[in-house]
């Protein structure tokens, strides 16, 4: 089969299109003929070596959609040809966290790699039937961003009528958060770096859009919009560039969700700001394995919409990463396989 492999960490040029052996499913596993793979920020970190070096060449990619094309011994409930979406969390399945549906707190939790390929072998519990009405491209764009956003909104007890601020609302995670917040009848204040996104964000349900120039603080604007109270929840995926502002714009007793650090991960916090104002800082990383099967039908019904920025051929994965790193995108980048 054809696949993208990484032999050493580096810039997008280390994503090499190669011929590799077809993987064979073992007991309890299925092989999926992938038709599309969603590109996530995580893939960039993997490529750069943030999760370790590559003793073996690695096929990146965690989100994908395709058709079952082989079943290992004992892999039941699926048939060859059935359309499925990859559910990318791997965990032990036996610990107290797994048994209570919090797989992303399992000590053995990790996100699988390998969807930048024509085929992938995964445990049968890591595929979910793909609803009709979605294309492979759309289905492959949903996983990580929607699972992550749904998990942290649930943990933050996001409630109808509350105000949520979303930094980087034009990205895949930002748009997933926006839509899931609107489903909860929340008021969304979207923060972006370009005027060109404003109309589309409003069409998707943002009440207000702040275009941030990258230097002047926007917390005064948020305080004005919330009658000096502050937002109930602030979703921060930028880190260094935004975190101190997030603490300033959240209300007393409110929650700041830390879900990434695309601008850098070192921040200085005056702890009095946390305890005197009774703030909660909630770290978010993926979510329960139950979320993807639960929300996929909402896409089939049109209650949630996959927003695709651009598609690239599998062989052009390095171009896709360059686009991802340009930060000018609106929605998801997907590889067409
Ligand atoms: Zn476990």
TrEMBL record:
UniProt superkingdom: Bacteria
Gene Ontology MF term list: oxidoreductase activity
Keyword annotations from UniProtKB, A to Z: NADP
Keyword NAD among record annotations: no
Gene3D superfamilies in alphabetical order: Medium-chain alcohol dehydrogenases, catalytic domain (3.90.180.10)
Ranges where the Enoyl reductase (ER) domain occurs: 10-335
UniProt cross-references to PANTHER family, sorted A to Z: QUINONE OXIDOREDUCTASE
Name under which the protein is recorded: D-arabinose 1-dehydrogenase, Zn-dependent alcohol dehydrogenase family
